[in-house]
Each structure stands twice: as structure tokens, then as C-alpha cells.
Specification:
The structure holds 2 protein chains of 2 kinds.
Chain A (H helix, E strand, L loop, with lengths): L1 H10 L1 H28 L11 H33 L4 H26 L17 H31 L7 H32 L7 H29 L1 H4 L7 H14 L16 H13 L1 H21 L7 H4 L6 H24 L1 H7 L3 H31 L5 H30 L15 H4 L2 H31 L26 H25 L12
Chain B lengths: L4 H26 L27 E6 L2 E9 L2 E3 L2 E5 L2 E9 L4 E4 L6 E4 L5 E7 L4 E5 L12 E7 L1
Parallel strand pairs in B: 2-5, 4-10
Antiparallel strand pairs in B: 1-2, 2-3, 5-8, 6-7, 9-10
Classes of the chains: A mainly alpha, B alpha+beta.
């Protein structure tokens, strides 16, 4: 037994190390989140040597960049290995180099922020200038994603060569889509960072501020949609197995992946709706580009309810809604994903509202936006990730979850849901009344307007405190499932397609075509504004350090 | 690809919602003039103080109950920082930044825009209620960001 145990751990070191590091990031990032929430609620002041903005910069980087990247790489490598077979030597080397690149990059980035050399937020808008080593660290983080993607592409390619004429298994198809999208999304930010590095070393004197900002946002929003695509890979391919059902439509799932990959990158422009230097006509075209991202999500909503209803009826649910009650609500692997999906109905609706220009102007840069991405990333994505933990980690470590950990998981889910609901809803409300994001506690000289935000901010702090307990609980659960749970076999939870399903058409595999379509759509969104920003650029900005 | 009938109905409904929201946004922007602030005019960010009109920031009357506020933003203040206009005034803010990116928001109004070095931004707001409005920076601009504010007093 001890031997199988060791072989399990050894065989799965790659994803396990990723998950281990990911949850350390969550622990640190979550603790920093607590500090911010308490400061924002007016409970205490942070010391000048480790001020609110440094804490916020780290919180953003560790959670939206580090935790998500590590978790995704871990999950995707485990999934590809399960569906496509043992990774080849080249792929293993790529995967470990990706992790090494991540570690080098994040050490540089975190070190610079802690040294007070990079209090620039994870958006690092110039002409605020951080230490060049901060930007060099970011290059390594991007490299990590590219190397991981390359490994996945090679695995898929090798499998296709061994299995001519067959469709790539659905989970591996998701993996290819996810890394294609993240690579497309990161091209803009890579160009930006490569312009910032010589400027930060002082080799170039000035920087084109609007160009940098626009390149950044072609990445910023795509990144969160990558995490969302990772989450829906779980909904489509894993959720049916957990509730005892089948995949509703293999073709539909693949079409959704393709649409998300080709439509996503120009969507980032909606972060610049109230920017100068763009015409109203261009901004209006981008309303279309942003809203088009909602279309595949509408298809997902249908597919998910179809799976839930079919499975519910198979389990004996009768009547209009009877199928809903018979779903396994007491199973933490289902409950987490279900809450994630429900929260996406709220988060998606809020997203559609705020991407319409005039409505965006009401909430731009307010706490509303922070509430929005804590619902979408903090619940929809993260809760789906938590849902994986309960079976994927014991599957990899060769252990089984105990009933106690299951109970604790249900409790963790409740704490997280209530904490996020309190925090995100009060952020939405305070934002509608004008409370700004990324601002430490202030009353603007006891202004009546700012004092009106206080009750919402105390709810925010309460929610943040609950979430901190949620972080402690999930980290304990992960550690237990990784190192202490009883030994045994936990199966990988991937689902099969319905027996009477239509065969998946060949065109879904035509990645060359999808890449070309994606490039066309990205060009449609970005060629005109980028050329305009370069041709009609004002004199560049010299560096500023305002922290 | 064969689609379920309910799926067709659902997708038609969903797309209709998106199209209608887009039509309303377009109508408001182009027929009613409610589009987001989108001024295109550049300026040398290192020469703001020597470039008209920013060499003389202040409040200027331009018509009957119409005003222009020429405003510069710098870490961590607005200039001018106390603005007084009569009730019902239509105020156009002409703004640029002397250093980093700032944001401008007057809570309880639709005045909300980015102010970027190298760019001049214009935004118009009519103040119909006589009260003291707060004007704040809503884009992180440095350690003193939370102190960066101004007031707009609307007099009876």
C-alpha cells in the first residue's frame, strides 16, 4: 500500500505541486484581502511601510494572476494526462520549465512590490513607473503561460497523430481552447511590457500612455474570460458525471469553446469606454464586440439546465420543477459548482448591463466593478475550482475524502457564499452611490456623500472577514486531501456523451480556421484604434513615481 | 448542427435582449447626445502649464447659465478645487493631467471620466439640484489618492 501511495504521489507530482503552490498563493492573497476589507470598512489603518496600495497590488497579483494560473496549469495537465495518456518527455520538460519560469517571475514581482518599488496595481498603467525588475518578472509569468500552452498543444498533436480521424476528447479540446485564448490575449500585454522595460531602465525617455493602456486591456479582460472558460470546462465535462448524467451535446460544448476563443480579445475595450482619444462610433462598435461574448454563455446556460433537468428526471423528479429538488444538493462537489453557475447568472447580467456605454459611465471605476468581478471570478470561477478540489486532489494523491472533510467542505461553501454575497452586494450598492475602487479608507473631509457609503463598507468588511475564514478552511481541506486523508482510489470524474447524441461534425477540429477567424476579429476591434494612437500620439510621458 | 426547439427559442430571446440593449445604447448616444466622453485632442504632458487654456485653470462663464471649467489634475489635487455655479448651470469640464492617469467622478451625477496625460478630455454635466457635490479621483494615482478631491457648490 505504501508503495502504491508513493508511486501515486510520484506519478502526479506535476499537478500536485501546482495545486500546493496555488493554495499557498490563495492563503497569502486572501490574508491581504482581509487587511484591505478591514481598512476599507474603517476598522484600522495600515502602516505607511506596508500601506493599503501595496497590499492591494499584491492581493490582485497573487489571486487573479498567480492562484488562477497555477490552478489552471495543474488542473489542465492532470486532465490532459487523464484523457490523452502519459505526457511525453518533451511535454514534461515544458511543463516543469513553465513552473520554473512562474517561480522566477513571481519572486521578482513580489520582491519588487514588497520593496516598495512597484506599488502600481496589477494594471501597472504608465506613466507610473515601477522598477524594471517588476516588468521583467511579468515577462517570466507570461512565458510560464506560453510554455504550459505549448506542452498542451504538443500533447494534443501527438494524440491526434496516434488516433487519426478521431475527435480530440472534449476535456483536451477545452485545454487547447483555453491556452489558445490565453496566448492570443497575452500578445498585447507582452508588447506593452517590452516597451516598458527599456523605459524603466531609462534607455527610452518617454512612453505612449494611451497605447500602453489599450494594449493592457486587450489582455486584462481576456484573462478573466480564460478563467471562466476553465470553469465551464468543469461544468460541461465533469458536472454531468457528478450528478449521474451525461454530456448534453458534445458539438454544442465544442462550439461554445470556439466562440469564446474567437470573440474574446476585443471585449477588453469596454474597460476604456470613458477614456479620451477614442470616438463615440468606435466605442459603439465595441458595445457589439463586448455583448457578442455573452452569446456563447447563453448557449451554456441552456446546456446546463438541460443536463440538470434530464438528470433530475432520471433520478425520479416529477412535474415542472421536481427535477431540481432531487439533484444531489448534499454533495459538496455538486453544491459548489451549482452555486458557481447561479452566481454567473447574476454576474453575467451585471456584466451585460455595465458594458453598455451610458450605464458603464455610471459605474466606471466605482466599487460596483469590484463587486462584479468578485461575483464572477471570486464565486463563479473560484467556487468551481473549489468543487474540483474534493475529488481531483485525492485522485492525484491516491487518497479518499473522509465524511468529516465533506462536512467541512459544505460548511466552507456556506461561509464562502455568505461572505461573497455580503461583500459583493455591498460593493455593488456603494459603487452605485459613487464609492471609488482602489481607494483606501477616506471620508474626504467628512463629506456627507462619503459618509453615506459607510454602512455598505462595514458590510464589505464583514464579508471580507468571513471570506478569510473560508480561505483558512479550504487550505486545511486541500492539505488534508493532499497529505493526510486515508489512502485509496478516487476516480477522475469525466463524463460520457448521451447515447443518442448526434455525431460531432469534423469542422470543430479545424483549429487553423478558428485561429484565422480570431485574428480577423481581433484586427476588427484593434487595428483602427491602435494605428490612430500611434499616428496621432501626443509627446510621450516621462516616468512618475507617486508612491 | 441540429438544435433543440427550446434552445432556438431561448437563443432568439437572449439575442433579442442583447440587440435591444444595444439599440437603446445607440439611440441614447447618437440621437440624444448621451454618449460617453470621447474627446480627441492631444497636448504635451510636460508643458501643461504653458499651454492654453491650462495656463489659467478656473471657472469661466461662456453663455447664459453655461460655464466652462478649465481643470488640471496632478497627484493629489484638482485645480481649481472649489467650484461654484448657479442652479441649472450646464458645465463643461475641460481637463488634462500633469503627471499620471487620473479619474474624475462626481458621485450622484453621471460625471465620470478618465483623464490621461497627453490627452485633453471634455465632459458636460448640468447641475439641477442645489447642493454641494463631491468631485473625486477614482483611478489609483499614488499614495495620496484617497485625499484627491474637490467640491462643486451649486447655489440657488
Amino acid at each position: 500500500m505504501a508503495n502504491t501511495m508513493q508511486s501515486h504521489m510520484k506519478k502526479n507530482t506535476l499537478p500536485l505541486v501546482h495545486f500546493f503552490l496555488a493554495f499557498i498563493m490563495l492563503l497569502i492573497g486572501g490574508t491581504l484581502g482581509l487587511l484591505q476589507g478591514l481598512n476599507r470598512g474603517g476598522v484600522f489603518e495600515l502602516p505607511a511601510s506596508f500601506n493599503y496600495y501595496e497590499v492591494l497590488t499584491l492581493h490582485g497579483i497573487l489571486l487573479i494572476l498567480a492562484f488562477t494560473t497555477l490552478f489552471t496549469n495543474g488542473y489542465m495537465y492532470a486532465a490532459v494526462r487523464h484523457t490523452l495518456g502519459e505526457l511525453s518527455k518533451t511535454v514534461k520538460i515544458l511543463a516543469w520549465s513553465s513552473l520554473a519560469s512562474f517561480l522566477i517571475g513571481s519572486v521578482l514581482v513580489v520582491w519588487m512590490v514588497l520593496a516598495g518599488e512597484a506599488t502600481v496595481m496589477y494594471t501597472f498603467y504608465p506613466p507610473m513607473q515601477a522598477s524594471p525588475w517588476f516588468y521583467i518578472g511579468l515577462v517570466f509569468v507570461v512565458l510560464c503561460i506560453w510554455l504550459a500552452g505549448l506542452g498542451i498543444f504538443i500533447s494534443a498533436f501527438q494524440w491526434k497523430r496516434r488516433n487519426r480521424g478521431q475527435h480530440l476528447p472534449i476535456l483536451a479540446f477545452f485545454a487547447v481552447g483555453i491556452y489558445t485564448l490565453v496566448i492570443f490575449g497575452s500578445i498585447g500585454v507582452t508588447v506593452e511590457v517590452l516597451m516598458l522595460i527599456p523605459w524603466a531602465f531609462g534607455w527610452t525617455e518617454t512612453i505612449n500612455v494611451m497605447l500602453s493602456r489599450t494594449l493592457f486591456w486587450s489582455f486584462g479582460h481576456t484573462l478573466v474570460n480564460v478563467w471562466y472558460l476553465v470553469a465551464i470546462s468543469v461544468w460541461y465535462t465533469i458536472l454531468p458525471k457528478i450528478i449521474g448524467g451525461r454530456i448534453f451535446s458534445d458539438t454544442l460544448a465544442r462550439l461554445v469553446v470556439i466562440l469564446i476563443v474567437i470573440l474574446n480579445v476585443p471585449g477588453g475595450f469596454h474597460h476604456q469606454i470613458v477614456d479620451p482619444a477614442f470616438s463615440e462610433g468606435l466605442k459603439f462598435m465595441h458595445v457589439f464586440m463586448s455583448l457578442s461574448i455573452a452569446f456563447p454563455s447563453l448557449m451554456t446556460a441552456f446546456a446546463m439546465f438541460a443536463v440538470l433537468e434530464r438528470t433530475g428526471r432520471k433520478r425520479g423528479g416529477r412535474g415542472l420543477l421536481g427535477w431540481l429538488w432531487v439533484l444531489p444538493w448534499g454533495d459538496v462537489r455538486f453544491l459548489t459548482i451549482m452555486i458557481a453557475m447561479i452566481s454567473f447568472i447574476i454576474g453575467g447580467a451585471g456584466g451585460i448591463a455595465q458594458t453598455n456605454n451610458q450605464l458603464n459611465q455610471v459605474v466606471h471605476n466605482s466599487l460596483w466593478v469590484v463587486g462584479h468581478f468578485h461575483i464572477t471570478v471570486g464565486v463563479t470561477v473560484v467556487m468551481t475550482f473549489f468543487g474540483l478540489v474534493y475529488w481531483l486532489i485525492p485522485h492525484l494523491s491516491g487518497r479518499v475524502m473522509t465524511p468529516f472533510i465533506h462536512h467541512l467542505g459544505m460548511f466552507q461553501t456556506a461561509v464562502w457564499t455568505i461572505g461573497m454575497a455580503l461583500m459583493a452586494l455591498s460593493m455593488h450598492a456603494a459603487g452605485l452611490f459613487g464609492a471609488p475602487r482602489r481607494t483606501s479608507y477616506t471620508t474626504y473631509g467628512d463629506s456627507a456623500t462619503a459618509l453615506g457609503w459607510e454602512p455598505y463598507l462595514s458590510f464589505l468588511a464583514t464579508g471580507g472577514t468571513l471570506l478569510f475564514f473560508g480561505v483558512i478552511l479550504i487550505v486545511y481541506i486541500v492539505a488534508h486531501l493532499m497529505f493526510f486523508a486515508p489512502k485509496g482510489d478516487t476516480p477522475f470524474m469525466d463524463s460520457r456523451v448521451e447515447d443518442n447524441a448526434h455525431p460531432t461534425p469534423k469542422w470543430t477540429e479545424n483549429w487553423g480556421l478558428w485561429v484565422i477567424v480570431a485574428i480577423l476579429i481581433i484586427s476588427m476591434g484593434y487595428v483602427v484604434p491602435l494605428v490612430d494612437l500611434i499616428e496621432n500620439a501626443p509627446p510621450g510621458s516621462p516616468p512618475h513615481r507617486t508612491w | 448542427m441540429k438544435m433543440h426547439r427550446f434552445e432556438e427559442i431561448w437563443l432568439i430571446f437572449g439575442v433579442a435582449v442583447l440587440v435591444i440593449s444595444m439599440a437603446i445604447t445607440g439611440y441614447q448616444a447618437f440621437a440624444q447626445g448621451m454618449g460617453p466622453p470621447s474627446h480627441k485632442e492631444t497636448i504635451d504632458p510636460t508643458q501643461v502649464e504653458n499651454t492654453a487654456p491650462f495656463d489659467n485653470p478656473g471657472v469661466y462663464q461662456t453663455g447664459e447659465n453655461e460655464y466652462e471649467v478649465v481643470m488640471t489634475l496632478q497627484a493629489f489635487s484638482f485645480e481649481p478645487s472649489e467650484i461654484t455655479v448657479p442652479k441649472g448651470a450646464e458645465v463643461t469640464f475641460i481637463m488634462t493631467s500633469k503627471d499620471v492617469i487620473h479619474g474624475v467622478n462626481a458621485p450622484h451625477t453621471n460625471l465620470n471620466t478618465m483623464v490621461v496625460p497627453g490627452q485633453v478630455q471634455r465632459i458636460t454635466q448640468t447641475f439641477n439640484e442645489s447642493e454641494e457635490f463631491l468631485l473625486i479621483c477614482n483611478e489609483y494615482c499614488g499614495t495620496g489618492h484617497q485625499m484627491m478631491s474637490a467640491t462643486i457648490t451649486v447655489e440657488e
